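**Tokenised fold:**
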Amino acid sequence: MPAAAHVLGAAGGTSRRAPADGGIPAGAVAAAPQAAHGGGRGRGAARHLAAGLFVPIWWAWLGYTVYADRFDTDDLLHRVLVLAGMLAVIAMALSVHDALHGGSAQFALAYVAVRVVVLALNARARRHAAPARPLLNLFLAAFTAGAALWLVSVLVPEPYRYLLWAVGMAVELSAPWLGRRRMARAPIHASHMTERFGLFTLIVIGESVISVAQGAAGVDWEPGTLAVAVVGFLAVASLWWIYFEYVGALAIRSVLDGLCFTYAHLPLLAGLVSVAVGTELAVVQAAAGELERATAAALGGGTALYLLALTAIHATTGHAIGDRVLWLRLGSAAVALAVGAFGPLGAPLGLVGLLAALLVVHVAVEMALRHQAASEAPPDVPTATGPTLP
């Protein structure tokens, strides 16, 4: 299909096939594990800080995914640009290891390369999709400013370089919110987005499972360390269950719903990354019989952040899960936070076991409450299968 016709069709809100953007998620798969493992170096707080590099990786993936859903043409030039984006994301993955250890300039340049490709794609869409130009003008301005700050940061010494990164990310992250009134002329397909976010979330959950295996592989196989690995796996499995059991039934009906769904995934995924880092370190530290406070905080705080973000997603999308489920999640988040802050550091199995037990019980209670809510709901509860937003 000619580029102009396909782009205008997307901007006009027509329903169409899922976008052919598989290459960029594949590149993000290469980068996400590195961020989930905290940059591969250090311990404790430094490693958790390194996990913050997941934010630009997530944003890089999101930029390609949302573009593809709105303006995908799948022609020769589009495929060339997507391949260039894949190379840039892979470069980010290769530079994550040293991003906070003397290699931050390489990571910044790789991120700039990612954004340059996104800018090129959006500039091309602007040429053909007149109804979407107000939104694309905002995106092009914000993304250019953000990429410029990352590029300038290469000339600035650390740690001020990281400050420019944060400002650049804030500028870019604010653009969709500022342009929410302009999105009606460039809608996205709700079911495509829930599917893609689910796939990316699954990647991060998979990395949490790998973290359990890596932690167990790096220590002697003693009963204590294996027990921590097992209960850590149960905790991660419970987080997976809570998300994927119900995310497909979300009712995203408006631009605001879509934005809340999108941005709530950032703390949700950050919580998963924190749990991944904490789980791996907990297994390693179990061999010494004592957890570091930063590890306990990563486990409890990450679990709480995940539950709070998922609560926000369901509350803002109007999903009929019932007030009792929302209060259950808030209560579980509070307990997880307390376990992370005040749990027994001298008993790694006890602390990780408490979190795992909390999440297993939470899953059982939430399933019962949701089943009851579903039986009481009217038969015409809307779902997220509508063609476009808004």
User: Anything to note?
Assistant: The chain is about 75% helix and 0% strand. Residues 1-23, 381-390 have pLDDT under 50 and may be disordered. The chain has two domains: 3-185, 190-376.
